[in-house]
Amino acid sequence: MTETTYETLDRPSIEEVDVSDLMTDVLAIPEHLRDAQWKAESADLRAWDSEGGLVVAGMGDSAIGGALARAVLGDQASRPIFSSRAYGLPAWTTPDTTVLCASYSGDTEETLAAYEAAGALGAKRVVVTSGGALAEQARADGVPVLPVAGGYQHRAAIAYTTVATLHVAAMCGAAPRMASEIDVAAEHLEELVSEWGPDGAQDSEAKALARSLHGSVPVVVGAGMTTPIAYRWKTQINQNTEIPAFSHELPELDHNELVGWTSAAAYGRFAAVFLDDADTHPRVKERLAVTRELIAGQAASTHIVTSRGQMPIERLFSLVLLGDLTSLYMAVLRGVDPSPTTLATELQDRLD
Description:
With 352 residues, the chain is α/β, with parallel strands linked by helices.
C-alpha cells in the first residue's frame, strides 16, 4: 500500500483518516469507567464466597480487562485471580471457583466453550457481554449478566471489562471494592484526554511518541503492574496501525531477548518503549535504564513512558489511554483507518 504521512496531528487530519471515528470512543474512556461502574452495580449481584478465587475466561480485547484488573489489585487481591485464554478452563479450576465469562460480542467460541465447561464443573458463573449467544444462554440458565454498552469496536470497551472484573472480584471475596478509586481515575483521565487528545498540543506526549515510532516495529516492555498494559499497547498497535508490534516484561527480558538486540538493526527498524510506574521494583528500574542504554545503538528509538496519577487504577488507565491514543496517531501517520480488522475478519470467515 502507499502510505501518506500526515505531519499535523490535528482533528481535521485525524478525521480524514479515522473515518469510523474510533477516536471518539477512546476519548470517552473516562465516561466508560463511570458507566461500567453503574452497570455493574445495577446488576444487583449479591456477595458470595469463592475460596477458589476467580478465573476470567475470554479472548483478545475481552480478556485483557481481566489481566488489567488483576494488575490494579496487586497485593490487595486476597485470592487467586487468573485470566484464561483458551477453549475450556485451567485444569485446577474447582467448583468453589468463580468463572467470569467475558465476550464483548457474546459469540466468541472459546468463551462459549469455557462457559459450558464451568457449568459442567458446577462452578459459579457470571457473564459480561453486550449480547449474543452468551447472553442468551446465561439468561436461560439464570446466570447473572453484567451488561456492556453496545456499538463499539471490541477493543474500545476496555473500561467495561476491567470494571466488571473488579466488581466480580469484590463480590466473590477475592478483592476489596474499588468504586471510589474508579471515580477518581475517571476524573483524572478527563484531564489527560484534554492534554493528549486531538485538540491538545502538537508536541504532547502521545503525538510526539507516535511520530517517533512511525516507520518502526515497536517492542513495548512492561514490569509488574505495567506488564499487561504493555501487551495492550502491542495489540492496539497491531489492530489500529496494522503493523507488527511485540511486548515483553522485565526482568525476564534481560535473560533472553536482550541478546537478540545485538543485531536488531540488521533486520529492521525496531523501537523500544519501556512502561514505568511509581511502584516498579527499584532493581527493575535500574534494569530498565541499563537495558535502554545497551540496546540504544541497535534501536530506531528508545522511550521511557511513566504512568500518571496516585492510585493504581488511575496510573494504569493513564498508560492505557496513552497507548490507545499513540496507536491511533500512528495509524493517522500511515494513512490507515484504525477501525477495520480485515485479516481477523477473514480468519473468522474461514473458520465459520
